[in-house]
Amino acid sequence: xxxxxxxxxxxxxxxxxxxxxxxxxxxDVPKPPGIDKLVHLGLFMVLAFLWSRVFxxxxxxxxxxxxxxxxxxxxxxxxxxxxxxxxxxxxxxxFDYWDILFNILGxxxxxxxxxxxxxxxxxxx
Length: 125
Prior knowledge:
Order of helices and strands: HHHH
Number of helices: 4
Distance between the termini: 18 Å
Largest sheet: none
Radius of gyration: 16 Å
């Protein structure tokens, strides 16, 4: 199995475990207002970046935008929305439209970051 795929799958599983853990199992620690939105943004930014690495081979000279946008970005945005809806079913968790917005913003930033680094032939991609 490809190392990129293993890393992306591991991150996806950890993200799901973290976001779908019942609220009673999460330690109650004081946190600054809005920090949870930044957490959502960061989690989904990394998710989009890692899956972009899986679906765009480093040997490609160009990202195939006609396939990348509909096949990948739409799927991952739908995933980001579904995770938030599923949280409604988890005890101690709640649904929040702002979380969806920050999930989608994270996906967008992760995809744009990947595109930028790919275009500039970064070793990170």
